[in-house]
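pasting for ref
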Amino acid sequence: MHRSKAPIPRSLLDFPTPHGLRIHISSLSTPHFASSYTLASTGLLSGSLSYLYASIPLPIPSATRSLPLPAFTPTSYRHLLPLRPPDPPWWWEIWHAGRRIDTRDALLYGRLYLPNSTLEALYLRRLSPTSQVKISAVSDGRLPNGGSVLALLAQDRGKWSAEYMYSTDSALLGVRGLWNFGPDPREPGSGVVSKAVEEVAAMVPGGGREARDGGTIGEQVSRFSAGAEVYYGLLNQSGGMSTGVRFTTLPAHAGFPYTMTVTLNPLMGNLSSSYSVKAGELLSLSSKFDFNVYSYESEVVTGMELWKLREGGGKDERAAREGGNTFAGIEGKVGAASLDEERKNGGEVAGCLKARLDQRGSVSLLWEGRLKELVYSCGASIDLRGGKDMISGVGLEVQYSS
């Protein structure tokens, strides 16, 4: 529940640091098929092979030389967008000669780890505009029964969303739900229209404005959400539950963006709260406090993310990266339009620094940057209390894609 409700503090406070040397090579060989290869050295040589297939084409730039750095290291603070109603079912229908010929989109993914021969698989299929099914599996001789399978059915109605899951590990059954307070985007007069209606209205002169303005009640500037999850293992006859709330500002908010979350697991007695804020165009801050009411154990973690711009980048280099690509989907990951505007106006994104500090004096540092056509990440873990292992976990990770 905490992972789905608090993605912003998780990306700011729980980012991984590389260990040893790791090299990633990826390729989008066709619009439907992609592959990736990883080679790692942490004292022992290891690696992985992964493949991805999508039934719909992926018309996105994939070469590192033509992508800005934020495409590989998206900003940790991402605005939640206003709620949208789901597309009507008829929008998905494709007819030919009196017969429906439309199909449901699907995605297949597999990854093999070497030399342990661990295999991961993922199957994702869209059932309707409001539901999709995901089946993930792992095969490893070191796991009980040689592996496990997890099936998940997700529904998103705009106003609320729910997930129903089953795992072969302990025959686990679970359900989680999220409710968004405020206007229901599915109701007429809410001021929100679906993507399908916007596309149809845009074909008619003036229709797009009428579709947006008709019955508008004002743009929402914040959102309050509450959710809970319950799970039970049939084999070990044990269960659990958790609940949480979240308050976040939306892009229409005039002040600085911020997000607050509180989660509670009453059976285990764990209480967790977080506060994240975008303090500037290039700076994001976050803090988290965990407390257990039974053992009185607590933990405090603070983190930051700082982007650095390189002024006066080469004009030819920028043209090679920006020419012919709008980066519409990529800029959405960055989350700060002004950051992209400064890059286009002469400031190249030079890199991103992430730092994390907890109450035990443990510091994690991560720097992500670009060197020619390579994207790299280097980091280390430092114990401020000193000792023989004051600096540990030093590593370098290099990515290249074509």
